[in-house]
Amino acid sequence: MPQKFKLTKSSLLKLNPGLKTQVLWDTQLPSFGIRLQPSGKITFFVQTRFNRKNVKATIGRFPQMSPEVARKEALSQLNSLQKGQHESQQPSMPSTSFGAVLDGYVAILEREGKSDISNVKNTINKHVRDAFPKLWITPAITISHDDCVSIVRNLITQEKLRTADRLRAYIHAAYERVTKPDPNTPSGIPILNIANPAKMVPVKGANKARDRFLSEAELRHFWSLAQQLPSPDRELICLQILLGGQRQAQITRCQLEHLSQVPIQGMASDLTILEIRDRKGRSAPSGGRLHLIPVLPEATDLISALTPSGGYIFSADGGATPIHNDKLNRICRRLRAQMEQTGLLEGGNFTAGDLRRTIETLLAQSGVSREDRGHLQSHGISGVQARHYDRYDYLAPKLRALHTLRSLLDSNL
């Protein structure tokens, strides 16, 4: 069988297949040919060279396409191949899905030891994977700005503004990891050569600052009612107050191994302290800022009751597992309802987060300086001096602030 001949309908019908696939060329258009398979199937194709490499493209099959039509199509595709403009020569689209990018972001947070990972993962799964299953499996490179807006807007229409803004931030951060690679935090996801589709303005009203704080009388009544709660709710909420209203996401990570004894000038016995790694804020160093909290003797007793044999301090099962972030809020709702029923509630609703604001405000009213309050609750600590030079642990002023707070809880009841 000749390897070159004019490809016509009659000549193709006379071909006999062999044991292996045969490649035959057209004499009229040298770059145009056919592949004759052992099954008898005939496929038209075109082949040429581009950038010193062989490039080819499949055109169609005989007899569905005639040799004359295939030859014209071959000439058109030949021009595209020789210019490097054929679709087969375009970069292949990464197959990484939108869901894989978000899962990769969660994996990075886990490797970095970030706090609140479970909430990030649950928010992504609930409001993206489950709510938009088609987008979840869509290639990440094809996700548009409108797609991201629709995901966030879905939560805005449900009046879940804070959740909407958090999810917006998660999606944006996930794409930043794969569009602006950081060699220190590999995600395992191929780098996508696209603009971040999640760039959008923050959700309005999501970060509206709350201004609710309890008055001195309200806090004292709250404390009194808390003493009557069953275990472990009593110990949990009282310990949160006696530690100065620390951030819930941080205290739930605390374990007995984070407690230690240190000498304090002027004290006969060593002071018990709780060590927290504060990762809050962009200025926090790698691993978090070291935050030391004095532990009053009463708070030490509460810890012993909550965690008799080790493990997590803020725990409802003896230290085996930490409490959920909403546990303290549920206790607050219960006590708030009791205060409302007995006419002791002066203001409106409040949360466990408002207790932190309450402690800050009442300490300010009691004359505790802004600096000492900031060090007690680990906020407002910034600048070159604080980050690089000031290595004082502020344990003494923190301890004085906690004693001031403790005196407010029982006075004038």
In short:
By secondary structure, the chain is α+β, with helices and mostly antiparallel strands. Helices cover 44% and strands 12% of the residues. The protein is built from 16 helices and 8 strands.
Q: Low-confidence runs (pLDDT<50, min 5 residues)?
A: 281-285
Number of helices: 16
Sheet of most strands = 5 strands, mixed
The Rg value, from CA coordinates, equals 34 Å
Q: What is the end-to-end distance?
A: 109 Å
Structural category is alpha+beta
Shape: elongated
Helix content: 40-55%
β-sheet strand percentage: 5-15%
- Walk across the major sheet and give the strand order: 1-2-3-4-5
Helices and strands, in order, run as EHEEEEHHHHHHHHHEEEHHHHHH
Mean of all residue-level pLDDT scores: 84
- Total strands: the figure is 8
Task: Please tell me about this protein's structure.
Helix 3 runs antiparallel to helix 4, helix 6 runs antiparallel to helix 7 and helix 9 (233-242) packs antiparallel against helix 11. Mean pLDDT is 84; it is low at 281-285. The protein has 16 helices and eight strands. The longest helix has 19 residues, at 161-179. The protein has helices at residues 9-13, 67-83, 98-111, 117-129, 133-136, 145-157, 161-179, 216-226, 233-242, 248-251, 297-306, 327-341, 352-365, 370-377, 383-389, 395-410, and strands at 4-5, 22-26, 32-36, 42-50, 53-62, 259-262, 271-278, 289-294. It is an alpha+beta fold and 413 residues long. The protein has a five-stranded mixed β-sheet with strand order 1-2-3-4-5, with helices on one face. 27% of the residues are buried.
